[in-house]
Design brief:
The chain contains 4 helices and 11 strands. The model has no long low-confidence stretch (mean pLDDT 96). 30% of the residues lie in helices and 32% in strands. The N and C termini lie close together (6 Å). With 193 residues, it is an alpha+beta fold. It has a 6-stranded antiparallel β-sheet. The chain has a 3-stranded antiparallel β-sheet with strand order 7-6-9, with no helix packed on it. A two-stranded antiparallel sheet has the order 4-11.
Length: 193
């Protein structure tokens, strides 16, 4: 169970995410994160959320971001809002100094499951890489990604490619197979469970 105070670090980029508010504090309406970054590359691929709004406020440093394919720069005190159904890439560092931002996700309707699943996918991904147990073969990576697709598309989250329909089909078929074979999008070991 991911609660306020929970944190995880992406071992490849050193990005540290701390949950300031989880579903308990927001009544299932989203979350508030503090993200500390040194890496000058994005942690997440371009994606969209069908029904929720994300706000990113730069606390310190300088950030790059992408919204609908257009890159921009933000400095401490500045923010940008991603409305539902807009492709975006979360802020990444524009300099060698640490950059810190706060990310507020606000859902259209309450869903504690979406909070736990989406944050759980991110924490599990980081944990698998840290522990050296991330899938290595092409087939294993496909099965892991399909299980993740099955979980996040349930909550209206889609990568920019392949199409949303293709991601749903992959999740429903290959993702189901991956789950049967023991792959997990959210592993209790990495979410405090």
């Amino acid at each position: 169970m991911i609660t306020a105070g929970f944190s995880f670090e992406h071992p490849d980029t050193g990005t540290r995410v701390t949950v300031l508010e989880s579903d308990a504090e927001t009544r299932g309406m989203g979350w508030l994160l503090e993200v500390r970054r040194r890496a000058r590359v994005p942690d997440l691929a371009e994606h969209l959320h069908e029904t929720w709004t994300e706000t990113f406020e730069i606390v310190s440093g300088t950030a790059r971001y992408s919204l609908d394919g257009v890159e921009g720069t933000l400095r401490a005190g500045e923010s940008f809002v991603v409305e539902p159904r807009h492709f975006h890439v979360h802020p990444w560092n524009a300099t060698d100094d640490e950059m810190v931002y706060r990310q507020r996700d606000r859902f259209a309707q309450a869903s504690a499951a979406a909070v736990q699943d989406v944050l759980g996918v991110l924490a599990t991904r980081a944990g698998l890489i840290r522990d050296g147990t991330a899938p290595r073969s092409a087939l294993a990576r496909l099965l892991q990604q399909a299980v993740i697709a099955r979980t996040v598309t349930r909550h209206g989250n889609y990568l920019s490619h392949p199409s949303a329909f293709a991601q749903q089909v992959i999740g429903a078929t290959v993702g189901r197979l991956g789950a049967v074979l023991g792959y997990r999008a959210v592993h209790p070991k990495y979410v405090g469970g």
